[in-house]
Amino acid sequence: MKEIYQKIWELAKPYYEKGRPMDVDHIEWMIEDALLVCQKENLEDSLLLPLVILHDVGYAEVPKDNPYNLDLRKAHMDAGAKIAKKILEKVDYPANKVEKIVYYVSVHDNWALGDKSVYENNPILAVFSELDFIWMATPKGFAAIMEMLNKNKQEMFEYVRSRPEEEKILFSTKTTKRLYESYLNGRKKELN
Ligand SMILES: [Fe+2]
Ligand SMILES: [Fe+2]
Question: Ligand 1 centroid to 2 CA: how many Å?
Answer without folding.
Answer: 24
